[in-house]
């Protein structure tokens, strides 16, 4: 799919088609200059120029551990027979080569991202059916190998679930019952009134009594009450003095 290839950052504006399949004469070249000319003719050299411009020094300590430079990935050339093709493309920046019998997931989807720009030779592309088989026939070059079948014929699960056919059959969404919040009756007046209906009357009486006491002011003692209070205090002081004298004598 061209959109996946462009999403990975490959420059395929000048490429005639995706997947890009070329003649088997590509496997016979031995010179890098001829390889560059072929990439230019098929519109893949723009991606090589992008790789060349992205070359930079690695950050961190990795540059002192034999991996000094970093760069983007370029086209992947998949061939059937190597008659000099690997030697021709080995010095082109970003271009990698791979035999069709040794397809590598790290090259087809670097970093786990699909959409690598792949250039196939005709014989390599035609050999895929005999290597891996189809959904109807088993592989001829592998013993009892079948392509893994998808679990779903329609991968758009969101569209299936939200379709009218499914939504009309499903039951209505249930709401979980909310847990009752237990309140403290000593702090919540409404809960206390439910537990003890008389509490409201008692509380009102206390409030009225407090207002009446505040309105009346402090209590005034009579003359006789004051005399009795002074006499009692005098008696207590005398008792304390007597106890203290006995302790000092002993």
Annotate the secondary structure layout.
Elements: H1 2-7, E1 20-22, H2 32-41, H3 45-54, E2 56-57, E3 69-70, E4 76-79, H4 85-89, E5 96-99, H5 105-108, E6 118-121, H6 122-126, H7 128-132, H8 157-161, H9 164-167, H10 189-195, H11 198-216, H12 223-249
Parallel strand pairs: 1-6, 4-5, 4-6
Antiparallel strand pairs: 2-3
Features:
elongated, single chain, alpha/beta, two-stranded antiparallel ribbon, 250 residues
Structure commentary:
- By secondary structure, this protein is α/β, with parallel strands linked by helices.
- The chain is built from twelve helices and six strands.
- The strands form two sheets. Strands 1-6-4-5 form a four-stranded parallel beta sheet. Strands 2-3 form a two-stranded antiparallel sheet.
- Strand 4 (76-79), helix 4 (85-89) and strand 5 form a beta-alpha-beta unit.
- The chain is elongated, with a radius of gyration of 47 Å.
- The termini are far apart.
- The mean pLDDT is 89.
